[in-house]
Amino acid sequence: xxxxxxxxxxxxxxxxxxxxxxxxxxxxxxxxxxxxxxxxxxxxxxxxxxxxxxxxxxxxxxxxxxxxxxxxxxxxxxxxxxxxxxxxxxxxxxxxxxxxxxxxxxxxxxxxxxxxxxxxxxxxxxxxxxxxxxxxxxxxxxxxxxxxxxxxxxxxxxxxxxxxxxxxxxxxxxxxxxxxxxxxxxxxxxxxxxxxxxxxxxxxxxxxxxxxxxxxxxxxxxxxxxxxxxxxxxxx
Length: 236
Prior knowledge:
The protein is of the alpha+beta class. It has 2 domains: 2-55 and 77-167, STM4215-like, CATH 3.30.2000; 185-228, no CATH class. It has 6 helices and 12 strands. It has helices at 2-17, 33-38, 94-108, 121-125, 144-151, 206-209; strands spanning 25-27, 43-53, 63-67, 70-75, 79-90, 132-134, 159-167, 172-174, 185-188, 195-199, 217-220, 224-228. Mean pLDDT is 77; it is low at 213-236.
């Protein structure tokens, strides 16, 4: 997915920011001092310098995958990752670099998310989007000067481009077979042996349903063991 987002951004920049100009390269190289010395053509550099999960967008649950009228598996929700790009322009003159940066900024400010025609099909098919921000201040734990120091180059005008990309965990749990009938109950009376087998609505045995109990057994107060009634006198 990372390489697909790289290509989506390059396609968008070439088609709209550069208006199809073929004399400007769009590359993904790290803009180190050695790279700058070898460059010999006007260039837009789209360098991926940071990749981390956006924990605020993490969710729980499962999504059903359906086929042939039933659920075949359940997959977890996607995880969202922030891909941060250092966007710079390289020419022989600062004025030309500033014009390129202005064109890049104007192009990217049109969008709150990558347009559908450049987004990978796996994302659009799932009904997801790829949010996009440009020119926002960097997080408190990171400064652009630190990025340039790590690259060994000199500080240069740049745009911070961030896209938030959904990525599937790739774990699918197979679902059980489809339900063919409602819930059924099998019950057995442990006292007199009556049974209800595979009933959807329990119906007590006729002997237990008769008033007073057809077998002469009744429950004594407090739920004690049943006593047998006798004709006349007191119970034994």
